[in-house]
Write a structure and sequence with these properties.
This protein has 350 residues and is of the alpha/beta class. 49% of the residues lie in helices and 12% in strands. It folds into two domains: 176 residues, Rossmann fold (3-Layer(aba) Sandwich), CATH 3.40.50; 140 residues, N-(1-d-carboxylethyl)-l-norvaline Dehydrogenase, domain 2 (Orthogonal Bundle). It is built from 15 helices and ten strands. Helix 5 links the parallel strand 7 and strand 8. Helix 8 runs antiparallel to helix 9, helix 8 packs across helix 13 and helix 13 crosses helix 14.
Length: 350
Amino acid sequence: MDKSSPHTFARIGRTPSPLVLGGGSWGTALAVHLAMAGSSPTLWVRDPILAQDIVRTRENRVYLPGILLPENLTVTPDLEEALSRATLLVVAIPCQSCRQVLSRVSEILPRPLPLAGATKGIETTTLATVSEICREVYSPDPSDYAILSGPSFAREVVEKKPTAIVSASPDPNLASDLQHLFNAPWFKVYTRRDVRGIELAGAMKNVLAIATGISDGMRLGDNARAALITRGLAEMTRLGVRMGADPLTFSGLAGVGDLLLTATGDKSRNRRVGLRLGEGHPLASTLVEVGQVAEGVTTAASAHALAEKVGVELPIARAVYRILHENADLGTTLSALMRRPLRSEEEYDL
């Protein structure tokens, strides 16, 4: 934390005690970052065997090997014990597990704590975003939630490589609290109010990263990659605007910034899934090889269903859905994309 900028922490307590839910690479990285930035966070790891190994070795050898955990970071598999001293929740578990975990949290806590969602995706059964899940099972007050998003690979964050993200909340006090809590000389946080846009951008960029990976795996060239990223950005903006988001959100860090990182960065799990598919590997073995959750695989189905529900055309996302979930042929699917009717790029709602 930047000690030269005193902050009152109106929503998360004078002495913040963040609890990070999720022992994967991103949850571990956020907990390590908070510890390095000056707070004393707790990391809740659902798997007790993994938690014990992390405590013993001071390293998450499964999800973030080679990174030594700071001494001021506590690790536990005991959710009730972890919640007893928390003033803020940071949710970094896969989207499809959020409802179950937050329901447990709600049963334990006497009243909701401010919550920062750092999970990207759309729930497959309900088509809900993380903030919508929170509203249903955690707190009906939207000012209790914020979303953290932006171009940020876990390993680069803990290696103190320059990073910038966004804290979005309807409550400017909560957004500001998170901005100051996560701030560090190597880590800059901006604020926004557009939670809906930030969440949809974070979900869609994973699907589009798979599309770009497929293109690169098929060796379709730099022109194709640039076209996919640009038209993919148009798709996520179109969906967001239809659902009430601010179109300017998608030109910021959580939109085009995160899309560029995830679609082109070699550390991107979703890009790696696409690369292997484009090289001809089947999806099942690809997911085993990648090893960690690639949210874009499940989000492709959710985004396809959501687009149909709200009446928005997402041709690239639909193509990814068909490849992943309908076993569509890559060449045939590409040809169908290129044969779409000619349009003006100025047509916003095509």
